[in-house]
Amino acid sequence: MKTGIGARSERERLRAEAELKSTVFWLTRSPWWAMAAALHLLLAVVLMNIVHLVRRPAGSAMFRVAFRPPAGLVPDSGARQGDQDRGVNGHDNEEAAPAGPENPADRDPRGAVPLLPPTVPIAPGLAGAGGLRAPGLGLSGQNGLGGLYAGRGGAGRGEALLKNGGDESTEKAVNLGLDWLARHQAADGSWGATPASPCTVCSEVPAGNPVACTGLALLAFAGAGYTHFDETDTAWTECVRRGVKYLVKRQRKDGLIDEPGDWHRGMYSHGIASFALAEIFAMTQDPLLRSVVTAAVRASGESQQTTGGWDYGGNPTGRSDSSITSWHVQALRSARLGSIPVEKTSWDLAIRFYEAALDRSKPSIRYDVYPQSAGGNGTLAVSAGGLLARHYLGVKDEPELNRRLAERILLEKPVYCIQPGNDSIGGKEGSHYYTYYATLFMLTLGGEAWPKWNRLMKAALIAAQEGQGCRAGSWPVGETDARMAGRVYSTALAVLDLEVYYRYLPTTAEDGDLVSLVERPGMTREQLLRALEDDDAEERFRAARTLMRKLDREAAGAVVAAAKRDAEGRGPIMISWLGGLPEDDALVEMLAGLIEHPVEEFRRAACDALQRTTGAHLTTPAQWSSWMLNRKNRRAAQAGGK
Question: Is the pTM of this model over 0.85?
Fold first, then answer.
């Protein structure tokens, strides 16, 4: 028995054959006078409606609100589209005007009809805070979604759009932005800082960051309700499908999703990619993504610092970075919304970090936290992202802190440099990164502050969007953060800002129906050392990770022995963790002995760990031997001088 799409196609074929047979049956068996009467009636209806094809005088034109997207921009997706002339599902009514020919090459938005989704009320029980089931049973498109994603498609999108301050201009900008992203996806499914060839006019920065940029682009499509599981496949469905496939292929054995060898920015990439995949899984419940997201969440927990947040790399350093941590919190929250378990220890550590980073006197979130101290005050972007993350973690809101931060944000309106490289306008807060977190924070805060910010945000973003040529629909690379990450980055974040009206249903308390946190009992040091000798490679790996997070120098030798047993697997990762330990003669000599290991990744990991623990940037065994000999001689000379 057929099921799914095949069964549906078979049923439709049989139904069509039955209808055709029924029509032929009545035509061949009806009397001549009945057929003549039907033809005369049809002719009368046609004659009566000819008047509607005559051009009306200008003074009698009727004002109409159009829900139809610009031609060629948005693939058909059911009840999400429609207008007063053609109906929600695209059916003509009696006043429908001729559609006319379409020009697929015309992407100039200036003559396009603005998009405004149907304003059917959100289903009862979904508009309030708390008790929101996630995920819903519906998919993107006509049925819509459930839970916090209920505004992304179907009946609820138009209502959420108007209720929260969006309009046809914001939707037009969203669809133009998504269209630009779809046109600049690489053949392998990725997006990068430099858009994919054959485009040569949209590239202002060196190529790079494909994992992070792909994650941001996927978040932009998902924010408007588009996934790889849409009921009606479209060109954008295929974009999402290829982007998801690319990120899945980039996942390593330890669950991290990042660029090969990019330990410096790896946790940025992993946090954003995990966020995108977790959100798409929560929207679709694709069974093939469950293990991918589960492994990514586990890797995030294993890369978390003892101070509670995340640093640039996954190795233990003790440093927690506010900006990187905000992406990981969003990823963990999306995982819980999709029923992926998250360890309670990881969740609680993140809460502890934001408490340590919070400066209530400003208020602001400090840029980073070390085991001994907290770093300097972060920017408004970091502060908005930090207070938003506290809210997502379920920390009780402090209204006075929120109010004071909102006042600071309203004084720093978003302004974007239209010309690349021009920083004379916009200032330190004129960045898409700032606007992304400020917009989410202000919508979550609500009250009088949100409409004020919304007016500023809409005006700045819509004015800055490109309108001509291949760049039409994108946002320029003119301010600090986009110059590092490129036009894909600036466009994806701008689209996410303009989707804010329906991207998440706002809540006033902790998100409803998050899957429960998982308790995992800790192991003693003796148990961890025994686990390093276990026959199970997974047990050895976890034990080494825990010991290195505790900065246990005495366990370095046992970790090296465990790593050698898995030299062609995850052993090199375990070696790289040793670089987070303070410099020690025994550790340096141990690592130096590994840079001649027969496995290349093992040698590279040992060299990387040596560089980080000593601060010396050397690459060959001979260089390290010379360096250690010089250090030994210097110490001997110092001892003799005393």
Answer: no
